[in-house]
Amino acid sequence: MRRLKQIALVLGVLFVAIQLVPYGRGHDNPAVVQGPTWDSPETEALARRACFDCHSNETTWPWYSHVAPVSWLVQHDVEDGRKHLNFSRFDQPQKHAHEAGEEVEEGEMPMKIYLVTHPEARLTDAETAALVAGLNKTLGKKKQKGQQAAAGSAPAAAGGGDSDHAHDEGAGHTHD
Predict the structure, then answer these.
(1) pLDDT of residue 149 exceeding 60
(2) What is the secondary structure of 88-118 as a DSSP string?
(3) N or C: the chain end with fewer CB closer than 10 Å?
(4) Which DSSP state fits 23?
């Protein structure tokens, strides 16, 4: 019993100590500069519901995003999401925007770990199909070998066709 109390005390001290690590609390939402020209209000509503917490400057930061070590994962996922596609910064090239429909269609997005705590982001099959079609119309479609990207938004918004799209596998991402 004494050993159990010692372990609990050590774990408690470690938990308090990791709260002092400064990473994971920078919960800023920079200004929304320019969004894409959506193909329909339905596509925008579905994207807001399933994508915007990580892929926009309109993140809703839940209570657990302030408690380490979970805050570290949440902060990392938002930073990574915004880096690859930021619906709030279509004034800048969005190099991977044309991959969004495919990632939703393949079940890579929204990430499964996100859906555990955000059930509102779960889409029915019909909603998923509508979001995929809408994202492809709004953002363009990923190039297939030997093809050009399907027309979507402006070339700067749809981005180039480089294949350097790699999310950090260490954070539970599986989309490449």
Answers:
(1) no
(2) TBTTS--TTGGGHHHHHHTT-SS-HHHHHH-
(3) N
(4) T
Positive or negative: CA dihedral 22, 23, 25, 30: positive
Phi, psi of 56 (to 5 degrees): -160, 175
**Which residue, 144, 166, 151, is CA-closest to 84?**
166
- Beta bridge partners, 89, equal 34
Q: Is residue 176 part of a domain?
A: no
Structural domain including 24 reads 2-171
Residue 161 lies in a domain: yes
Per-residue tokens: 131: 């979001």
Whole-model pTM above 0.85? no
Extract the tokens encoding 76: 């990392």
Residues 59-90 pLDDT 10s: 998 888 888 988 888 999 999 999 999 999 99
Number of domains present in the structure of the chain: 1
Smallest Cα–Cα separation from 85: which of 70, 100, 71, 73?
A: 100
